[in-house]
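One such shown below:
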Amino acid sequence: MKLDNSIAAVVTGGASGLGRASAEALAQSGVKVAIFDVNEEGGRAVAEAIGGIFCKVDITSEDSVVAGYEAARAAHGQERILVHCAQISKGGKTVRYDKASGGYVRYSTEDYAFSAQGILIASYRLASLAALGMANADPLNDDGERGTIILTASAAAQDAQIGQVGYGSLKAGVNGLVLPMARDLMDLGIRVNSIMPGIFATPPMLAVKDRAPAIFEGLAASVPFPKRLGKPEEFGSLVLELARNSYFNGQNLRLDGAIRMPPK
């Protein structure tokens, strides 16, 4: 796919972190970018900085996502790129000892369902609605390509740690969406891939650096090479390659400096 100002993209979670880096990379390539986020102040600031638009969108709400797509398409036309970075989840062990009650408690079904809504179901919602719009658009090139969908999984999809039973299994589910969805959409010329980031220098991790520098340094040292956290712009760089390179399809790609996470 040739990236220029004839191409529109939607980036969820674009107000900060990996989403922001993706939005900035796409905009620098000339793409028209719509940012979906619940952080109105941050999202508007990024959109203004990159010459894009902001849509306040709750990824757990079908109506909110549909309205976001309608607003983005009215401004920029049909998106040909979706980069879905936003997610919501709750952590917890399957069963843990609770000092307050003096007994064992479990990671509740309600907490798991909350995480499923914020990770797996939201990923399907954003991807399938983007695909529906792309399906009705004209092909972009001789391959018949109509668009590309880039989902964000996690290294935890393959080696989740203690307390990540919800997060890890649901990010694995995001990876599981990729191949069947790519096959579903192959006749429409729509590609689907996922990125599994390792430990990146996003705002939550930078907060750890300020609060507990020794822990932060230990995390950086645990990466085989390079011995540091990933830079958000490195995630953005892979997003660009996945968008440009039409032979990337049906892939789950780790971007993690070769780290393999220990149990804790």
User: Anything to note?
Assistant: The CA atoms of residues 145 and 189 lie 4 Å apart.
